[in-house]
């Protein structure tokens, strides 16, 4: 039983790692573009925003099990196989990109607009604002978004495993369900719970450290000057 658990755990980590990597690599630019082309944003463009938003919403609306089946020809074209951990990375990535992109957009929307305006007033262009204001200030929220995406992908990888994707889902279905190995089923579930818990704890730790490092004031360098935004002091009660 131990070799089976070890091999299938590695397969799950393989699927989650690579799908997270590609989802972050593609999802961050998509989320930035959604934010920048929205109403009242720096690159406001209704056509681009609606087209991209529709694409993202369509991707998020697909049940993952159906998405795997629909993408079989595309998966085979991209990686040469449609089953196994390698074949599962493609649908996992495509499912995660729109999910993560929306989280990125929401994280960027929470950045203090005063900082953006101050950076623009100091001569900062679009990409200066993105890389020196939006992304650094949204970093704790972006880390939380990555954490949420990883946990979601762990669940998706179990679904992929049940339909030939390998990993712990395949182990639980093939041996735990079909061959009535109850102890193996329980062990697999416990391992998935531990994996999700570890990911959440690590993500929360990074978020707290980044938030603490940020302090109460946000300072951004634009060119040779600094833009600083202080948090408003708490209101005092009238005597």
Helical fraction: over 70%
Radius of gyration: 22 Å
Q: What characteristic shape results from the CA principal axes?
A: elongated
Low-confidence stretches: 230-239
Return the average pLDDT rounded to an integer. 85
Explain how this protein is built.
The chain is mainly alpha-helical and 239 residues long. 77% of the residues lie in helices and 5% in strands. The protein is built from ten helices and two strands. It has helices spanning 2-36, 46-61, 64-70, 72-79, 84-109, 113-121, 126-137, 139-165, 167-177, 182-214, and strands spanning 217-222, 225-230. A two-stranded antiparallel ribbon has the order 1-2. Helix 6 (113-121) packs antiparallel against helix 7. Residues 230-239 have low confidence and may be disordered.
What characteristics describe this protein?
5% strand, disordered C terminus, 10 helices
Task: Characterize this entry briefly.
With 239 residues, the protein is mainly alpha-helical.
């Amino acid at each position: 039983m131990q070799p089976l658990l070890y091999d299938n755990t590695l397969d799950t980590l393989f699927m989650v790692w690579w799908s997270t990597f590609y989802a972050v690599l593609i999802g961050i630019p998509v989320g930035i573009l959604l934010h920048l082309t929205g109403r009242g944003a720096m690159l406001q463009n209704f056509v681009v925003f609606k087209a991209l938003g529709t694409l993202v919403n369509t991707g998020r609306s697909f049940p993952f099990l159906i998405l795997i089946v629909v993408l079989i020809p595309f998966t085979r074209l991209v990686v040469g196989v449609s089953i196994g951990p390698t074949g599962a990375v493609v649908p996992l990535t495509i499912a995660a990109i729109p999910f993560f992109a929306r989280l990125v957009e929401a994280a960027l929307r929470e950045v203090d607009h005063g900082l953006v305006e101050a950076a623009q007033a100091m001569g900062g262009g679009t990409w200066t604002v993105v890389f020196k204001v939006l992304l650094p200030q949204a970093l704790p929220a972006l880390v939380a978004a990555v954490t949420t995406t990883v946990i979601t992908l762990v669940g998706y990888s179990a679904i992929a495993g049940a339909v030939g994707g390998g990993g712990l889902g395949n182990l639980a279905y093939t041996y735990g369900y079909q061959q009535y190995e109850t102890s193996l089923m329980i062990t697999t579930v416990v391992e998935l719970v531990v994996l999700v818990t570890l990911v959440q704890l690590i993500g929360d730790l990074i978020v707290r450290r980044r938030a603490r490092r940020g302090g109460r004031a946000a300072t951004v360098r634009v060119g040779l000057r600094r833009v600083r935004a202080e948090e408003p002091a708490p209101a005092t009660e009238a005597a």
